[in-house]
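Good morning C.,

I know you're traveling, so I'll keep this short. The sequence:
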Amino acid sequence: MAKITEKAVVAAEGAAAGAVVSVKWHSMAQSIAEGLAGRDNIDFSASCLRDMVQLFFDWANLTMDLNFSRSNDGEATGANLIAPWSEEPHVKCVEWLERAVGPIVAKASEYADGHVVPPHRHSRAQMIYALSGVVTVAMPGERWMVPPDHALWVPCGIEHSVTASGQVSMRSIYVAPGAIADLPIRSRVVELTDLMRSLMLEAVTLPQCYEPTSRAGLVMALILEEIPRLPVRPLGLPFPADLRMAALCHHFLEAPTPRADIDDWAGALAMSRRTFTRAFRRETGLSLSEWRQQACLFAALPRLAGGESVTSVALDLGYDSSSAFSTMFKRMTGATPGHYLREAVPGRTDRRTKMAEIKAG
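The tokens, ready to paste straight into the viewer:
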């Protein structure tokens, strides 16, 4: 009975929202009819047409946001917004993107812990910003993590999947090819400036149909100008193309430790230390030590986002102390684990977290 009631509430909310758009359409049609009947006010009719286009975008966003999905326990939820006619929401989202006009489009998404967006691609480049939680993005041959205060740049046409760790609140901007010169051509994690963070949060509230000289147009234009200026952070984890070497990397991720020995890795592949070192850097662009540190960071971020203490995570990963782990963490991300905990787990103020923040500096 509870499930039926919840479905009815969700359906009623969707119907009510649809009714609002329907009333707007009726009112707009009547206004246009009156304007055309007079045929003496072209500016009025042009204004109505622009309003009609905006209402179309409102309707498109409404259908994207109606949720008739099921959570793992079978109940309708409000976290993953899926249109009622869509069995594959990411497919519909890509179709919506391909129909979108203008150099830049913005979208807000909310994902529950463990939610996975299957592999997909689109003609626009994407910048993914996680307000809370951790987003892991997998691409051919590499994986990237997007912690709070950072964003991932995904070039156009690259197949990728998205996995949420913790309750993820995500904002994305999609940039058309050639929208501006000097856009990144490779995937990379960037640290968001205060300006860029504010611009992305504002972008998702703006109408998708706007004049270039309007406030919305100027905000979007400034976003394009800021993208190439964002500082790059080493939060990607490239994988070797060599299958045997890749197998070692996958095995390491199952139990990451800062004490992995290069001689053991070289011996497992029947290589000398020197040959292995050269081959690993050629395959990944990193030394084994650099790759190992980034892999440990990959293992740590979701656990911190889940609320675990810095000390617990540090010791489990094989560090001698939380301070040694914190030093590595700050060097890699530009922030202490304590700062990360405050950003990734909003409102978490229990004693364990407070002590972790104090120890992490």
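Safe travels,
E.
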